[in-house]
Amino acid sequence: MSTSWRHLARPASFWRVFRAYFGGGRWGRGEPVADRDGLTRFLDSRSSFVAQISLYGYLRTRAGMRYPELFANDEFVKAIDAAKWQLWLACLSDLSVYAGGLLARRTGGDMAWIYRLMGETLEAVLAASGTVHEPARVERARARLAHCDWAVVPDDATPFSESPRTLVECAPIIDELKQLDDPIVRNSVRFRWQQVRRELRRDLDADALMASEAARP
Predict the structure, then answer these.
(1) Is the pTM value of this prediction over 0.85?
(2) For residues 150 and 88, is the Cβ–Cβ distance under 8 A?
(3) Are 24 and 15 in contact (CB under 8 A)?
(4) Is the pLDDT at 159 greater than 60, yes or no?
(5) Which pLDDT belongs to residue 106?
(6) How many CA atoms lie within 13 A of 115 on its CB side?
(7) Phi-psi category of residue 205: left, alpha or beta, with phi > 0 → left and psi -120 to 50 → alpha
């Protein structure tokens, strides 16, 4: 399992991570994304965080004061576990597309290089996550990158299409409530990505990343 997920087995842990992030914690320090390892860490940490805050935040909003009690129900915990994998993969897919598009815009370079880099980085994040229980969504993410036209990926919210829809589909909440919540939930996920986009624009050193890739054996 991804390291970022290990801290969120219970709601108290989630809110500690939330405060750390928005209070200038380790994910807010602006580590340069200047090589493949840095890109891998960025994709993993931010995808995990957006998935966590979106899923657990939605559950907390709907459950209110009873939110902690839900984690005493084994069936509910299993449903959360299934939902979090699906949402994490959707977030990883969205952010990978955005990152590849930003690289293409800044380097104006070889699109084949970006295809290879983003595909191999996705595989590195997946490998670090351990056993992923949603093979169909993994293949969907791979196929999306394999067929992405990096040159036309815009620097806006457009690439972030999978994660809002997936939260509505997979959250363990009754369908009637999800139908009512649909527009608000989707917009909330899109809002979460705004800070991540700002961070990647600030921290991505595309020239250094391209040079580090050229130096790889």
Answers:
(1) yes
(2) no
(3) no
(4) yes
(5) 94
(6) 10
(7) beta
Residue type, 5: W
Structure tokens at 15: 């809110």
Buried b (16+ CB within 10 A) or exposed e, 69-85: ebeeeeeeeebbeebbb
Cα–Cα distances in angstroms (integers) from residue 27 to residues 37, 50, 90, 180, in the given order = 15, 12, 20, 33
Token output for 27: 């994910």
Residue 132 has pLDDT above 80, yes or no: no
Query: Alpha-carbon distance 205 to 201, whole Å?
Result: 9
Angle between helices 74-107 and 111-129 (to 10 degrees): 160
pLDDT of amino acid 5 = 45
Please determine, for residue 34, whether its predicted confidence score (pLDDT) is greater than 90.
Answer: yes
